[in-house]
Design a protein that fits this description.
Number of strands of chain B: 10
Radius of gyration of chain A: 17 Å
Strand content of chain A: 5-15%
Oligomer: heterodimer
CATH topology of chain B: Heat Shock Protein 90
Shape of chain A: elongated
Largest sheet of chain A: 3 strands, parallel
Number of strands of chain A: 5
Structural class of chain A: alpha/beta
Order of helices and strands of chain A: EHEHEEHHEHH
Helix content of chain A: 55-70%
Strand order of the largest sheet of chain B: 4-5-6-10-7-8-9
Order of helices and strands of chain B: EHEHEHHEHHHEEHHHEEEE
C-alpha cells in the first residue's frame, strides 16, 4: 500500500484531524502485516499533533519493531523526521490510563529536587 | 454606570511590564465593566501589550461590559502608526484601515484555523523584512511548524471562551523578532490542578512546579489513548538551539527558557490565562539546515 500524503492531506501535516485520516487509512493494513509506504513528497510543514495521531497511536497495538519494519516513510524532510522520531519515542513510553496520584507525586518530587 | 478610565502607560516586555498588564486585567476583571483606555501617557507598546489589550477588550465584551479605546489620546506617532498598520486600531473602532507594511498584523482567532494561522506565521511573521530576505523557505516552514505548537496548545488546553490573540514585531535596532500568543483561559497551573483534582494535594500544587511538569517531554493533560505532550518540548528545544528566548506567564507561574537554561518561578501577581512570548535573534546563521551554505 502506498499513500501520497500531499494528495490525501495537502502541503501541511499539522493538525490531529488530518493525522487521524492517515491512521484510519493505514492501521488495518499494518495490523495485517502489510507494508505501507507514506510518501511526503511536496509536503513542507509539520507539527506534532499530526504525527501523534497518524503514527504515534499505531503503537497502541503494533509493536515498535513491527512498525519500523512495515511502515516506510519516503521524502520526509529533516524537520518532519525529527518530529516523527520524537513521536515514536514518546508513544512507545506512553501509558494510556492516567494515574493522577502518580502525576502529583511527580510534580512534588521534581519540586523537592529543585528546592533541595 | 460610570466609565472606568484605565491609563495605558509605556509597555515593554519585561516582567514589570507584564505585571502592569496583569494589574490592568485585575482592575477590569468583573462583569458589566464599562472601560475607556486612555493612551495619553503611552510612549511605546510592544506586541505583547497589543495582543494582551486586544484580548482583554474581548474578555470585557464577553462579560457584558463595554470598551472604548480613546484614540484621540494617542499622541505618540510610532505607536499610532504601528497599531494602525497592524490592524489593532481598526479592530477597535479606529476608522483607518490596516495596510501591508513592515508591521506584523494583530490577530484574533476564535477557532483553530490551521491555514489562517500557518499563513500568518509563514508569510506575515517570518515572510516580511528580515525573515523574507535572510531565511530560506525551508527554514521558514520549519519555524512556523514549531510556532504552531503554541496555538495548538492554547486551543487544546486553555478552555478560553474568547479565543487566542497574537501580535508580533521585528525590531531592527535590537535584531529581534517577537511573537506573543495570549489566551484568557484557565491557565496551565489551574488546568493541571483540575486534571489531578481527585488527589487531595492537587489544589496546593505550586504554579512553578506545575509549569515544570508541563514542560517535560510526554507530559500532558490530554486523555484518550494517544500520546501527546511534545509541543512545549519541541518549542523549548528550538528556542535554546537558536539562542532565543521563550517566556510563559500563566496564572502566577513564570517560565523562561533561554541560552542559560530554563527557570521556573512563582510571581506575586496572577491572571487567568497564559501568555507565550517568544523572542528570536535575527541572525540568519543560527537558522539553517546542515546542507544550507553559511551566510558570508
Amino acid at each position: 500500500m502506498k499513500l501520497s500524503i500531499k494528495d490525501q492531506i495537502g502541503l501541511r501535516c499539522i493538525i490531529k484531524e488530518d493525522g487521524q485520516k492517515i491512521y484510519d487509512a493505514i492501521h488495518g493494513a499494518l495490523q495485517n502485516g502489510e507494508t505501507v509506504t507514506l510518501d511526503f513528497e511536496g509536503v513542507n510543514q509539520f507539527a506534532s499533533p499530526f504525527f501523534n495521531f497518524a503514527i504515534g497511536q499505531l503503537l497502541k497495538d503494533i509493536p515498535e519493531a513491527d512498525l519500523r519494519r512495515l511502515l516506510q516513510i519516503k521524502h520526509l524532510n529533516e524537520t518532519g523526521k525529527l518530529v516523527v522520531e520524537r513521536v515514536i519515542e514518546n508513544a512507545a513510553k506512553y501509558h494510556g490510563d492516567k494515574d493522577y496520584r502518580k502525576i502529583v507525586d511527580d510534580i512534588l518530587e521534581q519540586q523537592a529536587k529543585e528546592s533541595g | 454606570m460610570t466609565q472606568k478610565v484605565i491609563q495605558i502607560l509605556t509597555l515593554n516586555d519585561g516582567p514589570h511590564d507584564f505585571a502592569r498588564l496583569f494589574g490592568i486585567w485585575n482592575d477590569v476583571n468583573d462583569y458589566f465593566e464599562d472601560i475607556r483606555f486612555d493612551f495619553s501617557r503611552c510612549g511605546f507598546l510592544r506586541p505583547n501589550a497589543v495582543a494582551f489589550l486586544g484580548g482583554l477588550a474581548r474578555l470585557i465584551e464577553s462579560r457584558m461590559g463595554s470598551v472604548t479605546f480613546d484614540w484621540n489620546t494617542l499622541h505618540n506617532s510610532w505607536v499610532r502608526t504601528t497599531i494602525r498598520q497592524n490592524g489593532f486600531a481598526s479592530a477597535f473602532g479606529d476608522p483607518s484601515a490596516p495596510w501591508d507594511g513592515t508591521s506584523i498584523p494583530y490577530r484574533e482567532d476564535t477557532a483553530l484555523d490551521m491555514n489562517g494561522i500557518m499563513d500568518y506565521l509563514t508569510y506575515d511573521w517570518l515572510g516580511k523584512g528580515w525573515g523574507k530576505t535572510h531565511l530560506s523557505e525551508r527554514v521558514r516552514d520549519a519555524i512556523a511548524g514549531k510556532m504552531w505548537e503554541i496555538y495548538n496548545n492554547a486551543f487544546e488546553h486553555s478552555d478560553s471562551k474568547i479565543g487566542v490573540f497574537s501580535c508580533g514585531q521585528h525590531f531592527r535596532n535590537k535584531n529581534e523578532l517577537c511573537l506573543s500568543v495570549i489566551d484568557f483561559g484557565l491557565g496551565i497551573p489551574a488546568k493541571i490542578r483540575n486534571f489531578v483534582g481527585t488527589d487531595p494535594r492537587a489544589q496546593s500544587l505550586p504554579s512553578d512546579a506545575c509549569l515544570r511538569w508541563a514542560f517535560t517531554r510526554g507530559k500532558s493533560t490530554c486523555t484518550g489513548g494517544v500520546a501527546r505532550g511534545l509541543g512545549l518540548d519541541l518549542l523549548k528545544e528550538f528556542v535554546r538551539l537558536n539562542q532565543g528566548k521563550l517566556e510563559i506567564y500563566s496564572n502566577d507561574g513564570y517560565t523562561i527558557v533561554d541560552k542559560d537554561g530554563e527557570r521556573y518561578e512563582n510571581r506575586d501577581i496572577s491572571f487567568e490565562g497564559t501568555v507565550v512570548h517568544i523572542t528570536l535573534r535575527c541572525d540568519e546563521n543560527l537558522y539553517r539546515f546542515r546542507d544550507e551554505a553559511e551566510q558570508p
